[in-house]
Amino acid sequence: MTDTFGATSTTEDVLRGISLEGKRILVTGVSAGLGVETARSLVEHGAQVAGAARDLKKAEAATADIRKAAAAGKGSFELIELDLANLKSVRACADGLLAKKKPFDIVIANAGVMATPFGHTVDGFETQFGTNHLGHFVFVNRIAGLIRAGGRLINLSSGGHRFSNVDLNDPNFERTPYDPFVAYGRSKTANILFAVAFDRRHRDHGVRAAAVHPGGIQTELGRYLEPSLLQKLVDQINAQRAAGDETPFQWKTISQGAATSVWAAVVASAEEIGGQYCENCHVGRIVPDDVTISMGSEGVRSYALDPDNAEALWKKSEELAGESF
């Protein structure tokens, strides 16, 4: 079943014939794009979805159709407030969920930012590393006890992890010249490494974790990119792909982009995706760090799946957050 899906598969393709009735799923970043489509597709198939967002007013507008579907009896949907760039908000949200004591079958850590100007979170961390990784690291670990045996954590990463490994000696660019894509790459590598380390810690009691790359999609994630810069990147990708006799780069639809998240969360076998990096609805192949990969092509760098690297990041993340898990 899982072998029949690929880059053009949509959420409806991968969920066809599947009932998620009775499944409780948490999705972060439900105010736009992939988060909204992920939540919509899950609710449409009967899931009870809790959607987390920083801006609840924006999320309410973005999820109006989801709430209509839920009211019509297709699962259920609720919104919760979560600002990943503020650890006080992260802890308050986690504490609220723990107080309710309602378990989850799946957590999809979808929210994120990309290629932001240099800046810091409320707690003083570089914006992309602090939001994309540290916010989710603290939040997911705090609610880990709510994930049922047989459950899963799905971290949204990106092929952009290939821009850079993590830099645990200078995570906030205090000594390194800031580059928005290097910072993005560090945070996306961290998302993969977090999944690797979380999977190792929780698989013995039946909870698995994986990272997914949704592909290239035109969503609000690219709001910090000038259109001319975005076109320049696409032109560079196509030049690389042409040199390797590959087909031109194609944007995915939002439904195609969310398909891998949904596939890894509820369709693929836990053993298949546990501790792995997934793309285009399959487990990605490891490409050695010294082998060139054209942008837009498949493949995960070995440093992003390295267990020692994952453990070092976990330790550093605890140190930065001031909290041990």
Structural class: alpha/beta
What is the terminal separation in angstroms? Answer: 36 Å
Beta fraction of the residues?
5-15%
The ordered H/E elements are: HEHEHHEHEHEHEHHHEEEEH
CATH architecture: 3-Layer(aba) Sandwich
Care to give the gist of this entry?
With 325 residues, this protein is α/β, with parallel strands linked by helices. The chain contains eleven helices and ten strands. It has a single domain (2-321), classed as Rossmann fold, CATH 3.40.50.720.
Report on this structure.
With 325 residues, this protein is an alpha/beta fold. 42% of the residues lie in helices and 15% in strands. Helix 2 (33-44) packs across helix 9 and helix 7 (180-202) packs across helix 11. It is globular. 49% of the residues are buried.
Key phrases:
Rossmann fold; alpha/beta; 11 helices
Ordered list of secondary-structure elements with their pairings:
Blueprint lengths: L10 H5 L8 E5 L4 H12 L3 E6 L2 H7 L1 H8 L4 E6 L5 H14 L3 E6 L17 H16 L4 E10 L23 H23 L5 E6 L13 H17 L10 H14 L2 H4 L3 E3 L2 E2 L2 E2 L12 E2 L5 H15 L4
Parallel strand pairs: 1-2, 1-4, 2-3, 4-5, 5-6, 6-7, 9-10
Antiparallel strand pairs: 7-8
